[in-house]
Structures are given as structure tokens and as C-alpha cells.
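note to self — DONT lose this again. spent like an hour looking for the file last time. sequence + predicted structure for the chain T wanted, 226 res
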Amino acid sequence: MNAADHLFAQRALASSPVLGMLPPVLRDRLLRSAQTIRCGGATLLCAAKEQPTLLYLVRQGQVELTAHSADGEEMTISALGPGSWISWLGLFDSRPVQHDIIGTSGSRIIAFPARLIREAVEAVPGCYPVIITEIGGRFRALIQWVEQSALANRDRRLAQLLLSLARTSGHDENAVLLTRAKIARLMGCSRQTLHGALGELASKRLVRLAYGRIEILDAAGLERLG
């Protein structure tokens, strides 16, 4: 790693709810083992049906999680931006992941050996409740989206999808980084329909539509949307 990457990783370790609990000697060991992955194009970090051997920290750009259907279709289910960690669950679940982990073009990803992360956490058992809380929060957000996708009207479905994507994005829980086209696929609607629905949310000042992202201005308002 160069000096800037090293400093970023050092600060990220110290501020992490989980890894910040480690004593400095263990965090230093993790820093010495880290490597930077530079994504000149879309880069497959870990393929579906493989067991992750690295824990990824997004330094620049973003990492996308992409699911595949039996007939070959694919859908991006989450995008994680700078400061996000991927994937805690894969470190402690012996089963392979069910989605591709892909670094987008121009991204810089700092990777830590999963084995060393597990050894460090095992040395500080107090980390486990925090890990469970982190994973549990994302799981609850996904379950809520599944419920609303089956029961709610279009506007509420979109509101809950945006909240779910933001809450599972890792570092920034007030922004959705997926493209409009990928959100439309998750919604099961056309881009034109999505554009109109997002415009309505923006007119109510619940979200702000920015280049490459959707910023959530009023999460409570999205929750109340009926």
C-alpha cells in the first residue's frame, strides 16, 4: 500500500465498531497484511459459490453485489461506497457466498486476509456481539423490503427499497449508489416509471436526485409513506 492507502486503512480500522475494539498490536498486524486492489475495469473480487478469503474495505469507487438466476440473468442487489466493509458474513459462514462481489471501474479496494481477521476477532470475544448487531441490522432491512415488495403500493415499495439499499450500503446510510436502471430492475418497472416515482419523492423533499446517487433527506418520511 502507498502512504495514503495505509493512512486510510489505519483510520478505518480504528473507527470500525468491530475492529476498533482490537488492541493496537492486532490492528498493526492487519495493516501489515493488507494489500490494495486497483480496478482498471469491473473486477471480480469473489465469485458466487466461492468462500471469501479476504475482507474488503472500499477506499475509492464502489463494490457491487450481483446475484444470478438459474437462466443466466443477473441483478445488482447492493452497492457499497468508500468506507464500507465487505463481507463480514462470509468470514464466519463456512458456506460460499451466493453473489458475485465486483469492484467497479476506477475503484481502489483494500483487502485483508480473512484468516487474520478471524484470528484477531477470536482474541477479543467482545467483538462478536457487535458483528451480530451489524449483520442483524442489514438483515432486518432486507426482510422489511421483502415484506413491502409483496404487500405495499408502488410508492411505498420504492421508499422501502431505497431505505433498504441505503441501510445495507455500509458506510453511508443516507445514500443509494445504484444506477436508476439497476433500481428499476429491483422494482420490476421501467426506467420511465421509476423516473416519475423518484420525481414525486424528490418533490416531497424526501430524497435528492444527484449524479450517480440518490440522497435520502428524510428517512422517517419515507418510512411513513403510504
